[in-house]
Amino acid sequence: MFYRPEDGHGLPHNPFNAVISPRPIGWISTRGADGSENLAPYSFFNAVAYVPPQVMFASTSAKDDRGDTKDSVANIRDTGVFCVNVVEYAMRDVMNVTSGPWAREVDEFDKAEIGRAECDTIACSRVVGAPANLECKLTQIVQLPGEANFAVFGEVTGVHLRDDCLVDGRFDVTRYQPLARLGYKDYTYVKDVFSLTRPGET
């Protein structure tokens, strides 16, 4: 099968997200200029650089009460900071609650009964008990082609690692089983890992 996206795929559901999978989930916490807080998952998320460490996530829709975007991007525009919270399999249901199209005044930490703590390097809350939290300072927001597509880039200024996820000095993902997004309504999680040595490495 071949199709041009501009012509449509002719399938019952768009296969694009299913093709590019699994995708890590960036559970983004932000604080507005008025002190209100927001927590929302984004599956267009990844690390993009080592030195300095940098991450990105993309928001691809808008809400009527936020104009051209959603709460996360609107808050980051105002404050210049955000926190990425890593989602484990055990937190799948509360993460899902925070994905709803809630009004801007709804605090998803409260809505999903999720514990919060203040970040160390930025003025923002992080998810208590998450396997890891990445405190980030905004570097740029890039408007992508399309009506409400924004890519947000940030430099990581602080990293929290849950102690039980550290094994012999390594961050062990099998200790918490990271949740990942597939296509449609599907998810998966990591429970098995294997290693490969690149050519030229020892």
Structural overview:
Pfam families: Flavin_Reduct. InterPro entries: Flavin_Rdtase-like_dom, Split_barrel_FMN-bd. GO terms for molecular function: FMN binding; oxidoreductase activity, acting on the CH-NH group of donors, NAD or NADP as acceptor. This protein has one domain: Electron Transport, Fmn-binding Protein, Chain A (Pnp Oxidase, Chain A, Roll). A hairpin with a 5-residue loop joins strand 2 and strand 3. The longest helix has 9 residues. The chain is mainly beta and 202 residues long. The model has no long low-confidence stretch (mean pLDDT 97). The protein starts with 15 loop residues before the first helix and ends in a 13-residue tail after the last strand. The strands form four sheets. The protein has a seven-stranded antiparallel β-sheet, with helices on one face. A three-stranded antiparallel β-sheet has the order 1-13-14, with no helix packed on it. It contains four helices and 14 strands.
CATH superfamily: Electron Transport, Fmn-binding Protein, Chain A
- Broad structural category: mainly beta
List SSEs in N-to-C order: HEEEEEHEHHEEEEEEEE
Number of domains: 1
Specify the CATH architecture.
Roll
CATH class descriptor name: Mainly Beta
Domain Flavin reductase like: 20-173
InterPro entries: Flavin_Rdtase-like_dom (IPR002563), Split_barrel_FMN-bd (IPR012349)
Protein name: Flavin reductase (DIM6/NTAB) family NADH-FMN oxidoreductase RutF
GO molecular function: FMN binding; oxidoreductase activity, acting on the CH-NH group of donors, NAD or NADP as acceptor
